[in-house]
# Entry
Amino acid sequence: MKSKSWLDLKPLKNQDRNIEYFEDYYNRIKLKTEFSHIPKGVFEQWLWAHHDKEESKTNYGWLNYENIEFQICSWPTNQFSNIYILDSYREYYKLRSSYNDLNKFCCTKIDLNHWEQKGTWRTPPIILDIMSLNKEIPKWCELIPPFQLVEGHSRLGYLHSMVTIDTLGKEKIAPKHDIFLMKINRNNF
# Structure
C-alpha cells in the first residue's frame, strides 16, 4: 500500500514512458510546501531516480513523507558497520567493499578525485533510522533495525574498501562521513 505522499512524489512520464528531467521534476515538486523540507540531494539521488524501483516502493512507499526528515549528520567510519543492506543489493555492495585500490572504483572522475583527496564520498548516502518509525512496519517490508541503507550502495561499499586501502597505506580515509539520516520528525505529531 502506497502513501498519498509517495504517490505525490512520483516523477511524471511522457508518452514514451521516460521520466521527466530532474530539473523539471524538482522545480515542480519544490513548489509543494509539504515537501519543502526534503533536500534537493535526496530528490536527485533517490526519490526522482529510484521512485519506480520495486524495492523503493515496497520498503519505503508506505511512509508519509510530510513527516519524514532528512538530517545531514557526520558519522565516524566505525558507525557504518551496523547498517543493513537489502538482500537484493548485498552482493553488489560486497563487491564494492572488496577493493584494495582506488583504481578499481567504478565512479566518475570527480567522485574518484574526491575519494582520493578527501577520503570520503562527495554525495551523502541516505540511511534510514528504523528505530524512529513509530508505526508497525508492514510485514512485506525488508526493514532491519537499527539503520538501513536506502541509497548509496556503491558509496558505502567504497567506504569499506577505503578502510582496507587506508590500512595498506595507499590512501587516507576521512575520520567522519556525511549522510542524510532519514527519520520520523516527531515534531509533526
Notes: The mean pLDDT is 95. The chain has seven helices and five strands. The beta strands are 68-76, 83-84, 126-129, 147-151, 176-184. Residues 153-167 form the longest helix (15 residues).
